[in-house]
Model the fold of this input.
Amino acid sequence: MNSIVISGIITAAVASGAVLVLAALGELLAERSGVQNLGLEGVMAMGAVTALLTERLFPDPYAGLLAAIAVGLTLGIVFATATVVIRANQVLCGLGLAFLGTGLSARLGISVSGWPAPATFPTFRIPFLADLPLVGQAIFNQSILVYLAYFILPPVVTFVLYSTRHGMQVRAVGENPGAADVCGISVSGFRFAYTCLGAVFAAVAGAYITLAYTPSWIEGITGGRGWIAIALVIFGAWRPLPVVLGALLFGAVTSVGFVAQVQNWGIPSSFLSMLPYLGTIALMAVPVLTRSKSSRRIGTGPAALGTPYYREGD
Amino acid sequence: MTAANLTAPAQRWHLRRRSDVPGWLSALVRLAAVLLAIVLVGVVLALGGLDPLALGAKALRQTLGTAYGLEQAALLATPLIMTGLAVAVGMKMRLWNIGVEGQLYFGALAATAVALNVKGPAPVMLAVVFLAGAAGGMLWMLVPALMRAYWSVNEIITTLLLNFVAVLLVGYFVIGPWRDRAAAILSASPRLPYLIPVIGQTYMNYGVLVPIAAAIVLALAIQNTRWGYEVRIIGGNRRVAEFAGIPVLRRILAVMLLSGALAGMAGMLQVTGSAQRLSGTISNGYGFMGIIVAALANASPLAVVPVGFLLAVLLNAGIVLQTQGLSVNAMLAINGVILIFAAIGEVAAGYRLVRGDPEAAVGPAEQPLRSERDDGTVGSDGLGVNRTS
Done:
């Protein structure tokens, strides 16, 4: 393999990993507050199609992004109302949201199916760093959303979660909502807000797909990335930096498939397309294998994840 | 707070949690969820300038109004009941098999492989192909089941991701090695040499009886055997089951593999039944609709049968109305809405609207229902799926 191929793999890994970083960090925040949103795939698809539909009227990537954020927020409010306010079963509501978003986006996207996005996020070249060998072009000549995904969000999320009082409150709500409630923290408020924020992140990830990564829409363009993002949160053991690394690793697996296809290694494309899904399943075993034998059977994650919170007599 | 309020206890309407949700209410709430979703679709259609009532009447006439429509619904109900059972058996133990679609496809692939390559008398071969389908579904579930049982790896994600792999695998075979070169059908295998016989002068085949038999066997196994009792105990409280000496891990494995086998049978029934050949379209999202069937049936195997038929009628109505802009994707979206409504309805059924003093002491009978999360799994509370129904 020559350096052009390697550089190409890294570029593709960074670009496809960014989708996952955005969605997974949002899911991480929601899950840290105790709410698992299995509807990520649907929200992402809705964000993706909304961004492109908006661009038909306003050919400006920021208009598309804003519209996607609005749709993500709306779906987040619907999901949070069902699961946090009404306290309905999170698995069923999440699956419902996934079906709703996937089906609705495919229906709405018929009119723009196959069209190239009229305006995309431009790449923003960072001087000097972009001239580095191998990684320069891959990391420092990308769109602004990629920088957001790798350089802004992970440190911000890490800092907020671990170094601020607010972040401790978020984690308290996810670990022991009863104790958080005693301390005067609004369990429902935190969960509602972070569930909505997670949905917004997923919609932004969707907008990144249609406005920068592969600037067009076809049915099923999200290709299970919403589910993979949820898997990455588990892989990263609900910590931001391992989640980012997992996304990059995943991106590398995906782009090896691309390269194999382009270089014609003789593997049928169906099998190459399976790589991301099989790779993700393999990734999910990693945190288990790194634990001691005795603790392998015990799941990790926020203790109150997926459990609605009731005060006594509520 | 005024003095008047203090002297007379407030007599106003408020919500109080029920200690137990009666079965009829639970069923009513689920029916309401479906109806509400249909009304919502009607509103959307009306906003789009269509006449929802006329469309609904047309759909009803063409599904329930004719023998042909009813037979089509029965054919559609076959995979829906099987996938519904596959999800329901997992829900008994708070396990979510979201990979029914993939197991269905891989079961169909295994069944097709045997049917195309092994020769023998038709009745024997049908039985062999049936077993191959079940084995295929089980095999597709094996890795998620082992990972769930021994490593507590979230089965929702692993089973779901394998859906994509199964669809790609089937796509590879029907476009590549198994492609039917005789018929003018693109991307499908040749017609299978062994098909389930058709019932008399109808469009139905005897495969429609399999889901009913499966539901009865499953209900008996869960209700009347030691194994079923242990499964219900584990679903109720895993820690209690462990203290009682029930082999929890083996039961998890068995239930998940059984779930995969049921899904694989659904795939076999498709390729040897109404589809007659393997293709990428043998399932219109039946695996995903199975989740809705199981949720609406409250994970009760016997209830899965009527619910599966109800959703088949709905799906058939959607197919009838396809020319009016209802697509497979619109049906998927509607299914999502039904699922969310059903989950909300389940909570609503847990409350009573009572008139009286909201501050009055809550008696022991009114203690809130609580879902204990005892095994470190992602919570799957509510829905009463753990009740011994």
